[in-house]
Amino acid sequence: MKIEIPERKKLVFESRIPVRWGDMDAMRHLNNATYFRYMETARIDWFHTLGCVPATSQEGPVIVNAFCNFYRQFEYPDEVLIKMYVSDPRRTTFESWATMESVSEPGVIRAAGGATTIWVNFAQQKAVDLPESLRTLIGD
After folding, report:
1. Which residues contact 99 (CB under 8 A, 6 or more apart)?
2. What region, left, alpha or beta, does residue 138 occupy, with left being phi > 0 and alpha being psi -120 to 50 degrees?
3. What is the tens place of the pLDDT at every residue in 84-129?
4. Within its chain, how far is the Cα of 137 from the centroid?
5. Total-model pTM
6. What CA–CA distance (Å, rounded) separates 81 from 78?
7. Domains delineated in the chain
8. What span, in angstroms and rounded, lies between the C-alpha atoms of 10 and 60?
9. SS3 136
10. Cα–Cα–Cα angle for 103, 82, 63, nearest 5°?
């Protein structure tokens, strides 16, 4: 099943990640699980730019679902440009989206995915309201 990325979203972060030889699978293309690692890396790097470093003694983000659509493969050597977007802030959740393209072939989306993030109090193990600063950033 292909999940469409919405047109209405806000670009919040870009990152470049080199494809490593070990990221490939036996078919000599980027292993599917690696796409999720790249999206996770971009998401965590974005959080760091906001001063939000997840710590289990506080509050922070938890991914409750994730998906990726694969359009064209990446191979070693290459560099992936990940563009991260956000949308739909709710009381405790928001959506994040990512597109992945080769730096050597700008504008051609090779993969795209997303995740629903819920904000939790780690000690209480329950959802809590998104920080107002994050809600403001994600909103229009």
Report:
1. 5, 82, 83, 85, 109, 111, 112
2. alpha
3. 999 999 999 999 999 999 999 999 999 999 999 999 999 899 999 9
4. 16
5. 0.92
6. 10
7. 10-138 (3.10.129.10)
8. 21
9. helix
10. 160
